[in-house]
Structure formats: structure tokens, C-alpha cells
């Protein structure tokens, strides 16, 4: 239990009212009146981000840590203005609360902030409302916190200075904040802990001055990540590690035809198995409660079920036939239609495909819950804590304020934990086990076969060249709607609305085509889909950047120069990123025999990222030797974390491009574990070289944008190597890789 | 029936069926949650522990087959008293989500015990069974080299 748990001690909360009141109004309209959720029994509460006590400073980072480094980066923004070194800072996630709503989520920040791109992006603005306002996702945590957290830190600092001014009877101009203390010109030093109580009574300033970037001590420097010692010693408390006295361990076995029916089950054998305590009918599956997770999983395997049919195509072929048929329906979205686009005289026509994918985070889905009649307590790693609290309350027949949710750190998510049904199942299991805490953990197979998958997709691309320029660009994209899946999961509404995620990764790329038509199509039925790291960009960037490559070759142009020529006039940052990666890799457009190089560039989450991949032929198998990545973040909080995230994103994208695929037979997902849904390993991970630019624009996201260009850069490199044009993922169907 | 096992120098009597894998004895019975469940089928390495210094997948090791002293991540070092290998992990900011890292460290520690100066190829050979979905491999590699250097100096 951290600071919030023992808040009955003498603890003073100092300042984010500035964020919620003064300066923030207008800029942060949705935060106009959120209540500070930190309620100490003693002392005053002024700020929903900063707690000061005798032990130091606790910063609330109300975004979920799933490996993207958010807890350190967001705490550093507060610490910078508060003038505390990072080793004095502790971080807590804090309770679910409207005060921690995301104000900037999936909103354009760069060249696409203006019409016509803006129109498309505004479709996405409803997302935070659906997910209950407080969400971690869309690579938007730093974007959202950039101003807010600095203002929160600055407000607290100013209040501490005011308290010191009163205490010492000197003017505020005689005082400065330094290293966790207010220091007077005569050298008197008052540590924050001594001033916190008085500071908490000060009126928060409306417009606390923010530091000159030249004076930053933390922002822009590589930061020691606060979570490292715990994660290197096995002491970091993941959701799955939740333990309590008298705890039982459970697992679930849900309908293998996802969202299909459970007709009946026979648990007679399971009931008699070692350690089994209870078998619970969940309607669309069962939970087995036992004394040990493994015993619960064994018993669940011994239950005989009869399952109803799948509410989607029963095989991969049928599902892709639905995607093909969608092209004959009205478009779901047409983000671009301008210039003159005719249906004929294309120079190049190509169709590409991407499979369904599982997220497969290392920590399988799990949650722990304790139901005591009038209260429900849940421990779960979720990206949307408020909506989870609401839905769990509903599931057990309590009011939202009777539910306490502890958002744990997550062993990866990549978008998976944006959906929360594992937490709701745990709540329902706990209700049947009143008074007993139950840790409900899924087997890996259950996890992989009950995901919210990256949608499978088909792209039909057409282009016409005018000399060495693209004159006409057409893209028809068919994929299941993640927006629809989201509304269904969180609002209980199942219907089609315009979904910019179908076309993202193609629609907002800064190529400046004179004539362009981009349309998105959605099949009527689909296996369950969800957000997968970079969402629509994950497949569409592969389609887009492969097709651009094909057009470059058709035009007889160098693929990098060809891209640059189109982009330069549209977006200076993306062009700079391309030039940067070109220079890093000494790109000449020529590669020796036995080597191949490919390039791809994608603008996503406000961040342009360009990647060059070099491959070599090893006795007929392809080896990835090196990846160069350049990105522009606008501003950088922690360059070390940015580097890690860009590499992580690329590895995630390459793993999928080369190896991963979810297929369906008899309505059930075939792949069940890392044997058949593998990823890059130590031995086939290439070398990386990363340059993160901070060209000064608004801060961009970093958790996702490393992923989109990876697949196309690899496909383009393989084309350069041996002339094989890969138009479907995973590439292992068409290429042997060195393992 | 009850089984006697020794974990991190402490001996325990465990009253569970003999086929329960060590992983689930550690996690659910002894409360040693540093060892992680990733796949249950020897495909990810998250559950790696050492038995008499040899790296083993605890999800594949039934309780009744545990012979020898078990070391888990908790036995390697604590946040206030980290082993050299753990310090190297911290210095390189290796962990992202961190879920795989107990297993990575247990595997790497076994490698270093046997081979104090591993080449990149040695690291590939020892570590390829340890999956990291966050893709921290470049930093794991760097941390292993740093730990090797630190351990040589010590
Ligand atoms: S859990 Fe044992 S190898 Fe994956
Ligand atoms: S750090 Fe997340 S799985 Fe390795």
C-alpha cells in the first residue's frame, strides 16, 4: 500500500487547482469542475497531483503504466516545475476520478490539425467519453500532460514559496525553490515537508509561471526510470501478483466462439478434482475457483461443454470473404475525395492483406476482486479505470461509489487492456464468493483465444503517375470497425458509425496528392476486434508504404527521394525525419548483392517516424541486420524512454509482420500460445539506431508510432533484396527468415 | 501428501498434489510472486528459476520432481540490496512493463555464473527462450555485458 493507503498520517496535498480552475479553463474545458479525489483525513487538499509529506513528494500519475514509461515521464513534468530531484519523487496511480480526465485524446497536433484532416480526426473525439474520460491510450498521455502536469508542479511551487514568505516574513522575491526546499537569499533553507501544511492553505495561483526551457533540469535529459529497482527484483506488484489473506485462485473458460452462446456444460468430473472449491456459471462460460491457479486451470479443462455457433464467419476464408463483400457496400467513411479521380487508366493496381492479431502481452488477463455485500474492491490493470468501476458496479448490483478500484501496473497491454471484461468477470466471481478475495487468472490459451483482435484487413490500392510524381491515388480499405466494438463494449450500442480508424495510416499521410480518393468499408459481421498498438495504422501503414514503394519503382525513382519529393511541400517535420534517417543510414539507393534496404515513413499520433531496414540473404533465408529510426516528437521529456519506445514499437511491428497471425476454424481461434503466435527473440532482433528529433512543435505520442512503418520497411527491403513483393502478412508464408 | 522444498535458503513443507508445477507452488502457496506465469508451456521463460544454479522453467517442473535448492528472483537481491546483475538492469533502464524481467535475470544470471564473459552469440544462445513482448532485447544484451564487467571487477 502506498501513500494513498496510509493517508491518515500527516499528509498535505498541495495544488492542482490551478489546472482545474484558473489557467486551465478554456484550454481544458472538460476539467472545469472536477473534484480533487485525494481526501486526506488530516491536512488540506489543494492539488490532485502532488502530495508532500515527511518522506518526500508523491506525484499522482493517473495513467496506467504498461511499460511505456509513463509514470516516470509524467512525474518528471511535475518535478521539473516543483524543483525536486527525481530521487525524492514517488509515483502513485491514484483513484479513478474525473479530475484525471484526458483532455487531449486522439486529437491532431501537427500539420493535420487544420481542415480537411481535422474533420476526420474529430470523429475520434467521442472516444474518451465512451471510455469514461480517464484513459491511457492513443499514445496521448504525455501530450495530455505536457501543460497540465507542469502547471500542477508550478502551482505547488508558488504556494510553497508563499508559505515560506509568510513564515520568514520576507517578500516572495527573496525566495526561490531549489532541490526540494525553499531557499532565502540569506541562505535559510526550508524543506518542503516543513512548509506543506501552510502551503496547503494558500490560494493557488491562476497563472503560475512556467520555467524557461533553458532552465530545465529533467525534461529532455535521460531519466532514471522510477520503476526499475522493483522490476529488477521481482517486487513490482502486477495485477496477477495481488495477494490477500484467505485468497482463492480462479480461472475462466469462456465460449471459444467469442460472444457465442454456452448451451450447456457438465462439470461433474471437475467438481471432484483436487483443490476445487466452486464452479460458477457465468452465462457465456464458467469460472472455476480453487486453492491454486493451476488446479483451477486443470479442472476447467475437465469440464465438458456444448457451445453455440459463432456470430461471425466460421473460418478465416469466410471472414475475409465478408471483408471482400464489404467493398460492394456504401463506404463507412470517405476521409478524402478531391481532385479528379477516374476509375480507369491506373498505372498500378495492387491488393494487400493483413491478418487478425492477438496482443499477447506477457501478463495474461487477470483481476482480483473482493465482494462484501455492500462493497466491491477490485485490483486490475485497466486502461480505463472509471468505466471499469462503473461496469463492475453494475455487474454486481452496487453503486459506483461502493466500488474501490486499484489500478495496478500491467505486464504489457498494447491496447488489450483498453477492454476490461476480465475485471468484470472477477467482480462477478467475487460476488459468488462473498467475503473471500479471488484472484481470477486466465491461461495463456484463454487469453490468446479471447482477445479483442487487431482486425484483419484488405486494401485495394490504385495509382496513376505523371512522370515521377503520383498524380492520382486511390485506396479502398476494408476492416472491422474498432469504433463499433468500443461502443458495444462500453455503451451497449451495436451500430455502425463513421470510423476514422478504418482509414488512419493512409488518410492523413502528408503526401500531397493532387487527386485522391480514400474510402473505408466495414463488414456487417466480424470476430471481436479492438485497439492493437497503433490501431488502424498497424495494417494501413503497411498497405500505404508498400504501395508508395511500388509506385516509386514503377516510376524508376529512388524510393526515399520519391517520398521526400511528395512530402516536402506538405509537412516539413515529416520531410526532416526522412532526411534524418537517410543520413543516419547513408542511404544511397544502391545495395550490394546479398543485401537489401527498404524505407517507410508514417505520420501517426502526431509523430512522424521513418524507418530504414537492412536485410541480408543467408543461404536463401532473410535476416534483418539493422534498423534505423528517426522520429520527431516535437518536444521530448525523456530521450532514453523515447528511444526504448521507438525500438519497442518497431520490434512489435516486425514480430507481427514476420510471424503473427490469428486464424479461425469452426468459429474458434486456432492459435493458442507463443508456439504458434511467436515474436522476435533475442537471437533474431536486429541492431537499432535511433534519432529522436524535437523540432519544437507540440509534443507527440511515442508508445505507438514506432510500430506502423516497420512492416512496410521490411517488405520494401526484401523487395530490394530479391525482387519478392510481399503483399500479405505474415511474411513467413512467402519468405524464410533466419531463426 | 506433503513435499519438502528449499527456496532461497528457506525450507518449506508444501501440501499440494505432486504434479502441481513449481511455478504455482511459489506463486500461490508460498507467496513468492516475483516468478511469473507467461505461457505455462515452456515457450516464454517468464517463470525461469534456478535449481542448484541451473536455469529451469518452473512451469514445467512438478513439485514432486524438485530436487535441489531453488533460487527465485527474490533470492537474488532486494531493492535495498541488489545483486550486480540487477544493478546493471537498473542502470540500463531495461524494464518496460517488466513482466518478463524476473525470468530474463534468472536466465542471464545462470549464463554469467557459467560464462563470465559471454559473447553476443553466447547471449543469443542462452536467452532466445526468454520472450519479451515489449522488445527490450537490446538493453538486456547491454545489461548482461555490463553485469559481466561489474562481476569481473568485484
Ligand atoms: S510460463 Fe514457463 S516458460 Fe512460459
Ligand atoms: S519488459 Fe514487458 S515483456 Fe519484457
TrEMBL record, chain A:
Gene3D superfamilies: Aldehyde oxidase/xanthine dehydrogenase, a/b hammerhead, Aldehyde oxidase/xanthine dehydrogenase, molybdopterin binding domain. It comes from the Bacteria. Coiled coil: none annotated. One of its GO terms (molecular function) is oxidoreductase activity. It holds the Pfam family MoCoBD_1. PROSITE patterns: TAT. Residues 233-311 form the Aldehyde oxidase/xanthine dehydrogenase a/b hammerhead domain. Keywords: Membrane, Transmembrane, Transmembrane helix. InterPro entries: Ald_Oxase/Xan_DH_a/b, AldOxase/xan_DH_MoCoBD1, AldOxase/xan_DH_MoCoBD2, AldOxase/xan_DH_Mopterin-bd_sf, N-heterocyclic_Hydroxylase, OxRdtase_Mopterin-bd_su_IorB, TAT_signal. The chain crosses the membrane at residues 12-30. This is Molybdopterin-dependent oxidoreductase.
From TrEMBL, chain B:
Keywords: 2Fe-2S, Iron, Iron-sulfur, Metal-binding, Oxidoreductase. Signal peptide: none annotated. The keyword Lipid metabolism does not apply. PROSITE patterns: 2FE2S_FER_1 (PS00197), 2FE2S_FER_2 (PS51085). Residues 1-76 form the 2Fe-2S ferredoxin-type domain. InterPro entries: 2Fe-2S-bd, 2Fe-2S-bd_dom_sf, 2Fe-2S_ferredoxin-like_sf, 2Fe-2S_ferredoxin-type, 2Fe2S_fd_BS, Beta-grasp_dom_sf, Diverse_Oxidoreductases. One of its GO terms (molecular function) is metal ion binding. It comes from the Bacteria. Pfam families: Fer2, Fer2_2. This is 2Fe-2S iron-sulfur cluster binding domain-containing protein.
